[in-house]
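This is your field. Pick holes in the following sequence-structure pair:
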Amino acid sequence: MKMSERTKKASSITKKLSVNGEKALEEYSGEAPGRLKRRRRRTMVKTKSRTLEGRERQTKEIPSQIGEIVVTISDDDDDGMGEKAEVSVRNTNGAAVKTDAGVGKHREREEEIIAPCTESLQDLIKKYMLTSKEEAELAMSHILSPDYTRELALVCSHTPYCLYLYSGVELMGGLKATVLLVGYYDQRSGAAVLKLLDARPSLSTTNRGALDSNRLIQILIHFGLSLYNLSVFYCDSPDRGANSEMEARLRAFRPGLVSLSSLPGLAGRACSDGLEAAFGTVGELTQHIHLHFSNCSLPAGAALREVAACSRHYQPSVPVAAQCLFISHMVRRMTNDWRGLLDYFESLGPSPEARRIRILMRRRNVRLGALFLCQALQPLCAFQEAQLSGSAGLAVQLQLMAALSQAYAARILKSSSVGPYLERHDRGMLRDAGLLLPDLELKVSPRVSEYLLELLRSEGAPDDASRETFLGDVVAFTQAVLENIGASFPDELGFAAMQNMGLLPSVALPTRYPCHALCSRLDAFPLCAAFCLCCGTTDIETPHPLFRGGLCQRCKDNFTETLFHYDEDGYQSYCTICCYGMEVIMCGNDSCCRSFCLNCLDILVDPGTFDSLKETDPWICYLCQPLAAHGALKPRKDWSVRVQEFFANNSDMEFEPHRVYPSIPANRRRPLRVLSLFDGIGTGYLVLKDLGFKVDKYFASEICEDSLAVTRINHETRITHVDDVRFITKEQLTKWGPFDLLIGGSPCNDLSIVNPYRKGIYEGSGRLFFEYYRILHLLKPREDDPRPFFWMFENVVWMNRHDKLNICLLFIVCNKLMADAVKVSPAHRARYFWGNIPGMNRPMTPSQKDKLNLQQCLETGREARFTKVKTITTQPNSLKQGKVPICPVIENGKDDNLWITEIETIFGFPKHYTDVRNMNRKERQKVLGKSWSVPVIRHLFAPLKDYFACEEMNSSSASSSPPDGSH
């Protein structure tokens, strides 16, 4: 990991000083740093004594960050309880300011100062840094000078820094030392800085972990390093227990500490846990074979000699189950000539050792386990070899760790569950049978499959129980490995951060690239705004909001109409670039629903791009990838803002524009949390699920018992019903929220001019508009809150002008949008909508699933008299058409009204959606007449797919659009 990346990441995590850290330091030294800083001359501190191993009584003089004060701490090793350490503060001239003895034993001893080990530092510098004696002495004098320490302490007092602890570093004369390094990002020079802090032979990380953690903290305090700014800690010791002890003690001062000490020894720990959960007999067999060959002469035969040669990877001091490289090499050599190896041990006669090996090798489950481990251990071995080679820095190791987790998760989890697991590393997901792959889809090596097929053809073929046992062991091994890797993941670093750990920020990427020739077809589309990206004309009306280039008037109109069209699989119906396309390829990134057509890819990027991308699974689209030019196709840096401004509602009256929320990258989108007021029969929830959104919580306020019954039956417990809207409080909204979307349409009885007894917006049911207005203002985030928040309010078109202006000018303060369902359904239903959802005012065009004429909605054997019908209300007489009421349907030569199932289809609901609670025809029409048109709400909600997570769609990478794909 580059130092700048680590320190910047740590800085963002630990920007403010933690109160817990101050309390921890106060417990350790007895005085909070703020008080110590204010009282420069007179400071008295008391701390509870800490019992350390040994009987020595040590005194440490710790220079504070203020040059005039030295703090002296005395720790007593006696086991007496209630004893307190003595801490005194004196001036640098030696005069003591004040000393307070603790309760209990009072003894005063002079203790030696923790000073750098000159010999170890000198040996380290000579061996690894400089060659000549003069240069080494010059470097030593510089490192040991007060200026060096003072400058380092000053930098670390205001800059997040990293601490590296390397144990067992070889020095001259065969000695070993523990080396401490400090790294930070120098903002003035813009470079990463790594400085040597200390080298001493006495600081061990393999035993006495509690004492070592104490001494480590004492050393840091001695050098004046601020523990509050310690942001990243790395220790290369594979002793996880000692590392954990150090992390725990350091986190007492710095709760936001990022520890990378879990990297060393990861492969061995994961291998050990995996073999403990399953295939332990394979590890036992490898150990027996190793012991046999280590105590006898080399056997004849190349295959047997290769098995014997694996002994060089064996480490006697490490349990065999934790020796990933050794087991991997052994099982690979053994399985290459299993029969020959078994014959060798058969020839050894009745030796107890040979007999034990023969028994294990004859077991089918042992051979299956060995074949499985040949492949299963490869990722762990690659990780360990990269660590041992020394060529993989921390950034590479973190990337490999993320890849390791992804590789093993994909072997047992369904593809839809891999992403969520990698985000959280939830162990419960590994034990959820519903998220695991079926046995037949488990990832095993071809050699395992061949051996299973060989057994099936033989007389002694294993039964189903034996195969299930083996596949169960495969799952158990992978689960154990994943749990170990997940436990080693730095909590503060997510999977995405670790994947991209080594990448430079976009501002640091090269701005010049070597020239390369473009094919003649690409020359017609240079990276400029002079051409329409869709058709190539130079008659440009507006810039393309997503990519460098323009749009002509015709293509702009088409782009506006179809960009947010989605098919039943959840993906865009047409190409993201041109909004045409007969054949498209879909983005494989979770929650991204974009499609790209053959023509745009082959012309703008490179000939043959479409065919080559079909072989890539999953393919990540150009807007989800880091921004870069692909041939003549170059995404705009601000495309996420431009695409929302492209659909801004600037018609009608002049208002201050709504806040524009940039589109959220697909991998950062989260599920929706919705509050629906005057919810009716759950049209909002139905549309959100139809569009494929992940809905975290859907709170609905509704008082009509018939409507509540419809939503309960159709959506069960997925909708949470809450109080009457008039009684919803601010405290309840805080408890339920934060919300991402507020929707609702207050009753229109007292607003519609059709009602001669209407009371207007200030009386009767019209006043319920102000309940929506009240809750809208309670939910709106502050201006400095980047979280997207959207809202939508609906009401009838036929209201008097006075009420209409009051809503627009005095309260909601935005332009209304009139949307008529007749454009996407067989029935007229004009409604006003107010809101800040992007693209609400774009032209409403039907999708492939919309039914546009009445005949498409009728049951078999019934004939429509009209293509469209007038607005269907709660009244039965609204179904008759014309000035002279005529029934809209003919059945068997007789006039007939619309059936309720047909009305449900006209509104866009599934058939029998309202068939609950023994409701009669009149009651069902009443709840339908108050509801929203499903295709209209789908049109309005579609742009939200740029902000919130969607369910994974079952679709192939490439698909063909219908013949009207050009729209």
Confidence is low (pLDDT under 50) at residues 1-113, 203-211, 506-528, 955-967.
